[in-house]
Amino acid sequence: MKILAIIINLFFPGIGTLLVKKWGQAIGQIILGITAVVLMFTGIGSIIGMPLAVIVWIWAIVTTATANPEPVTLVVQHKN
Fold first, then answer.
1. CB-based contacts of 53: which residues, under 8 Å, 6+ apart?
2. CB neighbours of residue 38 within 10 Å
């Protein structure tokens, strides 16, 4: 699941972070990513938008790559 999340974050920062259940960081990455794209379409805003997009992209990949997978709990029931 972690590999899939990293690949998704390459194209859509924040969405892959949702897959590894880091909700707060994922929402922040999505909001900042959208803000960066909007700023890139404005004239002077592209000076801020492009570096912001790169920072969010790196942040999303690092967050996903360093996420600890949830432990799997296995319950075995014994039938008599």
1. 33, 36, 37, 40
2. 11
